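User: Could you check the structure of this?
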Amino acid sequence: MNLHEYQARDILKRHGIPVPDGDVAQTPAEAQTIAQRLGGKVVVKAQVHAGGRGKAGGVKLAAQPDEAAAHASRILGMTIKGLTVQKVLVAPATDIASESYVGIIVDRGSQRPVLMVSDAGGIDIEEVARATPERIYRLAIDPRYGLLPHQGLGLALRLYRDLAQARSAAAIMANLYAAFYAVGASLAEINPLVVTPDGRVLALDAKIVIDDNELGRHPEIAALRDTSAEAPSEVQAREAGLTFVKLDDESEPPKAPELTTKLVQGEKVDVLVGTVHSGVAMAMSKIAREDGLPTLIPNAGADQLTRSLCAKNIFRTSFGNGQVGLATGRSMLEAGIKKAVSFTWKYAAGDESVGGFRESFVAGGGQVVKDITVPFPSVEFQSALAEIASLKPDAVYSFFAGGGALKFIKDYAAAGLNKSIPLWGAGFLTDGVEQAAGSAGDGVKTVLHYADDLDNPENKAFRAAFEAAYKTPADVYAVQGWDTMQLLALGLNAVGGDVAKRDALFGAMSKASFKSPRGPFRLSAANNPIQNFYLRELKGGKNVLVKTVATDFADPGTGCRLAS
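Assistant: Sure, the predicted structure tokens are below.
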């Protein structure tokens, strides 16, 4: 259970840790009154269980009470990472001479609290651990004795040369450990722990996470839970008796090993689910393979995940990039296309998609006149469009997505190419930009493992239920997520919910077969979907189903030892 900053500050105060005054407000008028009482400059901070408040505009300095009210007016109701801000903390703005970090976390492996300190305060400690791990000092605390005075002082002297400041910091560490133990926390941190210009050591910001298993022994802490500030998925999981740990990978592959390790070794999760970004998934799956942790990938399409890097505990419920290309190449041949040009961003997903297309298209007698690329994520397409016009192929196969795909579709039409050279692509070329493309998108053909208007009972029921629950139409990503949980449920049911029976769980999941909104679903020997692929044509802002172009279509699983 996450506590708000103002709640964590209150706990620290009760345990003798010096924390500047402050109060919580739910209206701009309340924020103004608090600022008047505090006098001078104040900081107005969104109270929401999400990181990145400052970057999102949820932390503002105010020189006057009316400015504090204005900031509160803008912050209250703001959405930060899907959560609506309903309260703000108003506290004095403090002059800072230096910033440090002090935190305590439970090490799941040793079952001991670990005290961590760093002279790199005021920034995310995980970023410090990734970039400059030598600036973090750790001490495992023996719960039989607690934090001994000489241990705290020893770490404090890592942060401060001034003995008085070091002693103040050591006392704060001892009191932080007392608070950590008293409330049954799994995490308690002060970031930053600051020294003011006059030499005082203060806790400016605090974060406390309570171990849910401790809430029964601490009803006064359980009463602090603010369900309105929690993600609906976390509330639903808790009501179902599950612990749902959600981390934002920020689509940053370099952060993936640390975040995955946090889930696997720190949180000791039973099942790992993620992610969207292929680079992140590659790093994540490496750690998961080594641990043997049940891992489900609901989107990332990197071919290697279910080819050369396949593993019995890694299951994908989406597609392989090359698999989509293979199906599209076959469909273009069936449409009578003999000569084609490929065009994509120069990056792994584009290379794999074009590679699959080229393989099946050439094998069927087609000719790829030229492979054209632009650097990722450039949207300067004019020279490539001129080259396509000069080559005069029968069609173009392309792999773009999102805003880049939308601009390409519009530029393609603006150049007049849509009138003479049909545009084809993997389904992501048009998914999500159908309406924005307008008339420029009419006639664009794409192939994917899902189409909105598939006429089967599972799809009709799923789309109706999804729209009722989320007030937006379902898309391919929603279907992939749904099927991920269908696959996991089949495995868990087979082992009676006992995730320790990993081999039996993997065996049941690998043999799973069910009716999905996308059509029949089962897995190849490499744990990649065997599925239908569909030709769609963009018309009037909708991807209209044309026909099924591949039935029970499997990725080759090249290099996968499971498939041999």
